[in-house]
């Protein structure tokens, strides 16, 4: 009988035949990749000096240590340790981090403002970004010698050249001839620029008196010369902007005069025609030379990089970046003399009443005259964040953010249609919905007009748009015809179907029968206007261009004084549309805010002239 081995020493047969050493377990894929790239780790900077760490440790407060211990205990679910050695280790870690950060050197590219933390990357970056102002050979030489002071001098010289190139790009883009006399006198030679003047000034200030001035006096004289050169450069740039603005004003005045003459000629040619009023005069394109005068000429800005590249000997891509960064570097004008009517303000928002005929945003950075320029002065130079826009002829509430943190949240509310908007409009004729009530809905897509660039029309290929309306006040006896001084707008003949049912449409005969008292034949006539006027509250659900104006015209009741879709006349000098109220949620506090802008005087005068009462919340 075979003897049995003890159970503790029993081994399987396979194990007895196994090799003496078991195979090593393979590390996980992530660990394998890390081991493969061990030799590719970045070179770590040397640790800070002990004296710097000691000085930083003395500045670490007990409150900072307590905060770190509290965070650690919450994360681990344990009580914060009270061992003094642990507290001292935390203090040293904080001190080492601060000392290392204090000795860290960074380099800012003068062309694109990218911050680089390693000098060696400056070589490859300059070759890719701005080889015309940064020499990679000079940078590599200073980098190999670890001469950070030389790198700073190279970057300072490149920054000065970048500023000269940006000013030259502005000249080429916006000025006829590419240079103003004032700027040319101040800048000196083309390639010398401010540097040439600086050299002459330096030799004149310090060179002739070098034997009589001590070192401090020489430094003071050099500083004074540098300040004088800087002041001269600033004065030259201001002169350039003034000359550019004058050139733009001259070109715009000529264009306005040409438009007025064309409008008079068209009106005279269309006198006596009953085809819906004179067609809009075709705007004459400006002469080729005028496109080089400064102005909000988008086409010129698109074309200019080719000219800039040819003049400066750089690539078109580099010329485009030069021009755009030059324009962005120009500070926005502050309209300190123009009043600001604030209707609501807190630490996050400011809502103002935009007067009619004032732009929401500036047409150019160095031009004033917009609500942004007014708010810039109102906020003491701090940038206002425009949340939405209104047409230049539309008055009403305009919302600005005072801090950048509110911008994404409010923009998301506009995008998701969670902002409640209310407008007030005076319509031609009294809308009479088929159900006999005061409310009606227009759900019609908004598309571009095929022949009028600035107009829109209802078309199946347009973007979805929806607006709810409510009649607030009505006067069926208000006269709005030609005998009252009315003139047809540009697209008056395209106004849409009436609001009433089929019976009313048949009786009225078409487009404007919902006006009420007018006979069908007169209502169908393009030059005819339905009798009566109404004050309508508008609730746009979407935010398409000209949405309210177009939807009311599509309903057969355009806005009075609307030169595109309605009738112009003696009631108002601009379209009777007012952004009355806006309701948003403060994304930082969750508070729901409803802000209301009172009616301007011209709107109130029109209501009085037409026998309409203003709503109580608009007074």
UniProtKB/TrEMBL annotation:
<feature type="compositionally biased region" description="Gly residues">
    <location>
        <begin position="193"/>
        <end position="209"/>
    </location>
</feature>
<dbReference type="GO" id="GO:0000455">
    <property type="term" value="P:enzyme-directed rRNA pseudouridine synthesis"/>
</dbReference>
<protein>
    <recommendedName>
        <fullName>Pseudouridine synthase RsuA/RluA-like domain-containing protein</fullName>
    </recommendedName>
</protein>
<feature type="compositionally biased region" description="Low complexity">
    <location>
        <begin position="1"/>
        <end position="24"/>
    </location>
</feature>
<dbReference type="GO" id="GO:0009982">
    <property type="term" value="F:pseudouridine synthase activity"/>
</dbReference>
<comment type="similarity">
    <text>Belongs to the pseudouridine synthase RluA family.</text>
</comment>
<dbReference type="InterPro" id="IPR006145">
    <property type="entry name" value="PsdUridine_synth_RsuA/RluA"/>
</dbReference>
<feature type="region of interest" description="Disordered">
    <location>
        <begin position="269"/>
        <end position="297"/>
    </location>
</feature>
<feature type="region of interest" description="Disordered">
    <location>
        <begin position="1"/>
        <end position="57"/>
    </location>
</feature>
<feature type="domain" description="Pseudouridine synthase RsuA/RluA-like">
    <location>
        <begin position="348"/>
        <end position="554"/>
    </location>
</feature>
<dbReference type="InterPro" id="IPR020103">
    <property type="entry name" value="PsdUridine_synth_cat_dom_sf"/>
</dbReference>
<dbReference type="InterPro" id="IPR050188">
    <property type="entry name" value="RluA_PseudoU_synthase"/>
</dbReference>
<dbReference type="GO" id="GO:0003723">
    <property type="term" value="F:RNA binding"/>
</dbReference>
<feature type="region of interest" description="Disordered">
    <location>
        <begin position="184"/>
        <end position="225"/>
    </location>
</feature>
<dbReference type="Pfam" id="PF00849">
    <property type="entry name" value="PseudoU_synth_2"/>
</dbReference>
